[in-house]
Amino acid sequence: MRYGSSTIFSENIKSFCDRKFRVFTERNIDEITQLKHIPEDELQSMKIVAMVFPFRVNNYVIDELINWENIPADPIYQLTFPQKGMLTEDDFNALKKLIDEDASVDDIQKEVKRIRFQLNPHPAGQLDMNVPRLDGEPLFGMQHKYNETVLFFPSQGQVCHSFCTFCFRWAQFIGESELRFGTKEADSLHRYLRENKQVTDLLMTGGDPMVMKTKYLENYLTPLLSSEYDHIQSIRFGTKALTFWPHRFVTDSDADSLIALIKKLIDSGKHVAVMAHFNHWQEFSTPVVREAIKRLRDAGVEIRSQAPLVANINDSADIWIKMWKEQVRLGIIPYYMFVERDTGAKAYFELPIVKAWEIYKDAISNVSGLSRTARGPSMSAGPGKVEIQGVATIKSEKVIVLRFIQARNHEWVQKPFFAKYDENATWLDQLKPAFGEEKFFFEEEYEHMQLKVSENSTG
Hints:
Order of helices and strands: HEHEHHHHEEEEHEHEHHEHEHEHHEEEEH
Strand content: 15-25%
Oligomer: single chain
Radius of gyration: 22 Å
Number of helices: 15
Shape: globular
């Protein structure tokens, strides 16, 4: 293994970091040694849930991040291993019944597919409203929801080093081709960027682009050094590699070439940001993740952290306080606290909007100003990113105060609006306008946008 010249490793850290990547899925879950101590009924439940939701975990997560003395409460265990509560009781029992009756593979798969398609596999219009067009044809490996930012889904990056149990892009990983984003068409990406000069930010996403070899990233990104792409000011990498496989930036065979590519982009005048997905302070506990953070920062990368607020993993202010403080200490910028999206196993992970705001308020009021860059709680809904700003009483009516941080129409951004107080609502579409209004101010225009997309898709 090679190590960057800027870093001197102790023998202890070398030994710790120098490991080979090994992945476990539902196919070889019985090979995970630590699960041999799990009760048989719990293990069977895990396997049933893994039929519906994608399961993938690696040896680093298992050996270094999970406290196996704290099962099942350990947050990283909850983050990576399927839990029975992720399925409704009816759906779980329906699958279990088929398995107990030794049903055919076809019958089991039909039931699995039925369950999956009722779980809102592509929320917020990402399969229809967000897909841009080139010469009238949809570019299914890209999304362009907000004016300045294009998301690109390279096909080589449509997997992760491990999967999050609450992942809002779970449909990418279940083998249903009609639900997947992804493309190898670098030429289409480059042409689309050339023809859309209003775009300033390119977000490489997935899956996780950091599972890709550097040579593939070079193919997509090196052309952006040309003056034709001077309008592309920022290149972002949406990744959880710092948690799930920090060796990608330290000891992988092409880690040095990755750092070199990043430096090349920065030296050309591009801003490079790693949009790191951290859910819990426990993810910062190993020497290799701290070394990976250091290498990226030494290269000139800005690391921003974002995560959803999820039950069973990080649903307390104390966790966020400790996490944000540690991030600032390591030079990471707290960026977003999200509301768990309305997809997949949301019933197991979601929290009421009001509760999310209370946790955010308690956390943000107990950190220094350097941590108060974290915005939220934010819902990435169909119309845009909606921030819950608080609860107030206006004209004798108790209301939830909201605003758009980002929106399909930029004129909606920062405009406050009000919903009737609802302590049980978990998503935007469950809220009702306050003060006797029939609709929120943006709804009619958004409905027209949806209609226009529907008309375009049909003909």
